[in-house]
Design goal:
This is cAMP phosphodiesterase class-II:metallo-beta-lactamase superfamily protein. About 25% of the residues lie in helices and about 25% in strands. The chain is an alpha/beta fold. The strands form three sheets. The chain has a seven-stranded mixed beta sheet with strand order 8-5-4-3-2-1-16. Strand 12, helix 6 and strand 13 (about 175-180) form a beta-alpha-beta unit. The protein starts with a strand and ends with a strand. The structure holds zinc ion (ZN) (2 copies). One zinc ion (ZN) binds near residues 19, 55, 58 and 221.
């Protein structure tokens, strides 16, 4: 399996792209940086996009992606997400006002994108991968994902505050190689993390006590302007599994 980190920042700035993972060149998980990180030729190879939730930093390149692939693909790209997330896309994004409705362009029978509802805990088999959404605890309905090719697996929690189920799944995945999880705000802003359902480094420490596996844990979604404050706070956890996730890195198993 090849996992490419297209973007992993909690905010956009020069050199900092928003959340997006690419698995085996064919499956995108979240769409915060598809068009910013990939050539059009690479974008055309994406057949499935799995969204964790509707927040803008996880979906914002979908409109430009649909425009780039229009006329260059034979099959509609499937957008997999919770019903609530797809509802937001339909009502607020691909509504002909903010962006054309590419789910009926060029025609309803032969569209550019197709919406596919997902159900937490169900496994979806695409591009040789088993992808399982797991519900997490965020401001809007949100899932993390377990991605498993039968040999190796990784878990991406997406944006979440305190949660349990995804750690249970991680503990029960024998071929787990990596966990990607979040820390969004410094410890001093615990109130903001609570209000927006994110983690601080201290809260992350409590979450990691639930993960009883000696696998690498890579942290994403730091607020760009708070990175310098947060790095020593992450270090202070004293958890040897913890390291920052880095944009543009490729992890291969
Ligand atoms: Zn979010
Ligand atoms: Zn986010």
């Amino acid at each position: 399996m090849e996992l490419r980190i297209l973007g992993c920042s909690g905010g956009e700035a020069d050199g900092e792209r928003l959340t997006g993972l690419l698995v085996n060149g064919c499956v995108a998980i979240d769409a915060g940086s598809i068009t910013a990180a990939l050539t059009v030729a690479e974008q055309v190879k994406i057949q499935h996009v799995f969204l964790s939730h509707s927040h803008l930093d996880h979906i914002c390149t979908l409109p430009f992606f649909t425009k780039n692939i229009f006329g260059h693909t034979h099959e509609a790209v499937e957008i997999h997400a919770l019903p609530e997330t797809l509802d937001v896309l339909r009502r607020h994004l691909f509504n002909d006002e903010l962006w054309p409705d590419f789910s009926v362009i060029p025609s309803p029978n032969d569209p550019t994108i197709r919406y596919t509802e997902i159900e937490p805990e169900c496994s979806y088999h695409v591009c040789g991968l088993h992808i399982t959404p797991i519900r997490v605890n965020h401001l809007v309905p949100c899932v993390g994902y377990k991605v498993d090719d039968g040999k190796d697996a990784f878990i991406f929690t997406s944006d979440t505050a305190e949660t349990d189920r995804i750690w249970e799944v991680a503990n029960a995945t024998p071929n787990l190689r990596l966990v990607i999880t979040e820390a969004s705000f410094p410890n001093e802003q615990a109130w903001l993390a609570e209000a927006s359902k994110h983690l601080t480094p201290a809260k992350l420490g409590a979450e990691l006590a639930k993960l009883r596996r000696a696998v690498p844990v890579r942290i994403y979604h730091l607020t760009p302007g708070d990175k310098a404050t947060m790095l020593p706070q992450l270090e202070a956890l004293g958890d040897a599994r913890v390291r920052l996730l880095t944009q543009d890195e490729r992890l291969v198993w």
